[in-house]
Write a structure and sequence with these properties.
DusB-like, about 40% helix, Non-ribosomal Peptide Synthetase Peptidyl Carrier Protein, Chain A, oxidoreductase, about 375 residues, 14 helices, TIM Barrel, alpha/beta, 2 domains, globular, tRNA-dHydroUridine_Synthase_C, two-stranded antiparallel sheet
């Protein structure tokens, strides 16, 4: 693990601060949280890192893993049909599987398509060749390229029976590795069918269900409906329910377990700019002081290490382009973030990246 990341991750909480960010939760109001079981896999703590296309690559996972707190990490979603094509053409397997073969477990790989046989073939490869811990099937992506063009992701919420057929086939191909499903509440607010979907997912043999508290039509607008997520649990007989959506603080993670009927939570977009959020959430669930955010200087050091990891894989030119979006995430919510974004989105070389970071990344005010 990179030394710079480890040093920041191991930093102890600051003492003597009145901020709630470093104050332990009252044990009397803490929810009772037990390890999550996905088939034979024990996920402890029951806090999962969401698969996010274009973001949750090996470099990002290295950073999350160094901080700790995520019980299960996940890759970006992998196009099953593209995987098969690359395999047939004897090309290198997708970049989205970068690091998967050798990195620590547990690790989930998410796949997407609408054909049961294609998904089963890829799931079997991931299970028996890559030996992943979980194969997750994406039924929640709302992006047009996946839905309308490929009739996959959240498009399949229109045909729950098809979802069941896919899961059954992938479960059979991946045995004994558990297969899970990630989905949304429905296609739109007037077509919420998550209860029916949940029962089909369980009946088809999935080992867990993750539900994002928005519909496909919502995309990422508005607020996630945790009250609707909580209505699902009574309809599941044997598999755990994992809730996802708008978890951007440790306090919200504790509240999700306390108020809503879930067995686990999945943190997504908020972690892109705060990969230490899992560590903070895990501490909060244990009733311990929440580790503080890194200082801006430490965050700058972390971002530079992230860039180095990306360049090791993709080279300087492509690494610089890929790092643009990650750098924007790190600056989000900081004073001067807009000016930093304006400059960093145009970087093309390592020298330009370091120059922009030095000149424009926000600095602590003394």
């Amino acid at each position: 693990m990179p030394n710079g990341i480890t040093a920041i991750a191991n930093r102890k909480p600051l003492s003597g601060l009145a901020s709630s960010d470093t104050t332990p939760f009252d044990a009397a109001v803490l929810p009772i949280v037990t390890p999550l079981r996905i088939g034979d896999l024990v996920v402890d703590p029951p806090i999962l890192q969401a698969p996010m296309a274009g973001y949750t690559n090996y470099a990002f996972r290295q950073i999350v893993r160094a901080y700790g707190g995520a019980g299960l990490l996940a890759t970006e979603m992998v196009n099953a049909r593209g995987f098969i094509w690359m395999d047939r053409e004897q090309a290198e397997h997708p970049d989205r599987l970068w690091g998967v073969a050798d990195e620590p477990r547990p690790l989930a790989v998410q796949i997407w398509d609408n054909d049961p046989e294609t998904l089963a073939a890829v799931g079997a490869r991931l299970t028996h060749e890559y030996k992943v811990s979980v194969v997750d099937i994406n039924f929640g992506c709302p992006v047009r390229q996946v839905t309308e063009k490929a009739h996959s992701g959240s498009y399949l919420l229109r045909t729950p029976d098809r979802m069941g057929q896919i899961i059954e086939r992938v479960v059979a191909a991946c045995h004994p590795t558990p297969v899970t499903a990630k989905t949304r509440l429905g296609c739109s607010r007037d077509k919420i069918n998550i209860i029916d979907v949940a029962q089909i997912v369980e009946g088809a043999g999935a080992a867990a269900l993750t539900v994002h508290g928005r519909t496909a039509a919502d995309m990422f607008r508005g607020q996630a409906s945790w009250d609707l997520i909580s209505t699902i649990k009574p309809h599941l007989k044997r598999i755990p329910l994992i809730g996802n959506g708008d978890l951007d603080t440790a306090e919200k993670v504790v509240e999700a377990f306390r108020r809503w009927n879930v067995d686990g939570v999945m943190i997504a977009r908020a972690s892109l700019g705060k990969p230490w959020l899992f560590q903070q959430a895990a501490a909060a669930l244990r009733g311990e002081p929440i580790p503080p955010d890194p200082t801006l200087e430490e965050e700058r050091e972390l971002m530079v290490e992230h860039f180095r990891l990306v360049c090791e894989r993709f080279g300087e030119e492509r690494g610089a382009v890929l790092m643009r979006k990650f750098a924007c995430c790190y600056a989000q919510g900081r004073p001067g973030a807009r000016e930093f974004r304006k400059h960093v989105v145009g970087i093309e070389t390592a020298a330009e990246f370091f120059d922009v970071v030095e000149q424009w990344f926000p600095r602590s005010v003394v």
